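# step 3/5: fold
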Amino acid sequence: MKRLKIFLANVGLRRPTYPLASPPMGILYLAAYLRRHFEADFVLINQREDNIPNDDLLRKIKDFAPDVVGFSSLTPAAHSVPYLTEGVRRALPKALILLGGPHASSFQEAALEGTSADASVPGEGELAFEQILRRHLDGSDFSDIPGVHWRDKDGRVVSNPGRLPYIEDLDSLPFPAYDLIDIKKYWRLQSMPPIPRRKYISLTSSRGCPYHCGWCHRIFGDQFRFHSADRIADEVEHYVKTYGVNDIEFLDDIFNYDPRRVLGFNRELHKRNIRLKIAFPNGVRGDMLTEEVIDSMVDSGTYFCSFALETGTPRLQKLMGKHLNIPRFLKAVEMAVNRGIFANGFVMLGFPTETEEEMLQTIRVATDSYLHTASFFTVVPFPGTQVFRYAQEMKPERLVSLKYDNIDFSLAPVNLSTVPDEVLFGFQRQANRQFFGKPSRIYRIMRDFPQRRRLPYYIPIYVSRVTKDLFKFGKKSSV
């Protein structure tokens, strides 16, 4: 079999509204899986890492002259994909061009529109990507690969029914291919936690979620699949020895779904005499945390954790399918903070049918909580989600002018609630002022922030949050 040359790129530039740069986990896991099954040379590029302009990225692809090019992107960065795929097609007319990642999963066959890509892979990518490569090498089309979208010989988009099975045994997967990137570059940048300049590695120890939150893409399905405690410890131990890391950030959607696994991981770390700092920037399921689990997390080295409240109203928790027990959530945040964990929160405003009173209730719940910091986002209807279906049925006019390009989630120009735009966006500013203006919270941030000397760095970000110009949305808020 021919030795392949595969170029994988995570598309998207850093920008003031989203200055973070984390290792490109999707293509790291994909490359690790593919080189187990194919003889291949790889180049992996995270466009966000060095803020590589599109033309420079195309130049790197042309210089490598790959047989296969894969682009992964979030929806706000997907506006670059048509330009990139057209550039690859001109320079390398015989190359196989594939799309994947969250945007391909959300937009399905529409992800191919306006691009020069040959196929799009929604959802979990390893098995589909492998089958596409095998058909390509055999000279076959992709008509028998469930769930993929592809172009036939006449250029028409074909959407195959069904989907490939999810990978049940995640322990069977290889470690992500960190050897294909320079991990030390990320130590100088800020990743998801607001704690830059750390010797860290990002890990994803589980896939899938049994909850049905209305705003979620649910890329990995409804079943919680996970690495065993032993496997997570093996991986952590490997990175400690190979790269000298002392900090791990887990990017799982719901790391604590199985409490026994959390406790087992802690035991394995102690058995191997591994001492770490651990962050959970993507959030845990707060109302599932018990004292025993929180104590185990702290004993493992947890110092930072995000907690996803989303809404402080029981009605919207039920409507949106999250069903968070708010009192238990608040108690878990308090327990975590009292044990030394710096607690960040995720909050959203602008849910379908949300009223002014419910927005105020959410702001009040967040402000009165033990959270150190919080981000107040606008609910954005992405295709394939329950929220998008609501917008199509009840407020289709809101979708006509909605552009996802470089969207700022902290003040997205979309409103699915019952209140006027100026009220919603005014409440977002009010939320930041009330939350961060509380004297006891300012004191606790200064006391508990893991890198206190870097706190002045965040002053401009805070000022930006509470003084955003609302004129572009119409009338200025009087809130």
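# step 4/5: annotate
The two ends are 66 Å apart (CA to CA).
# step 5/5: archive (pending)
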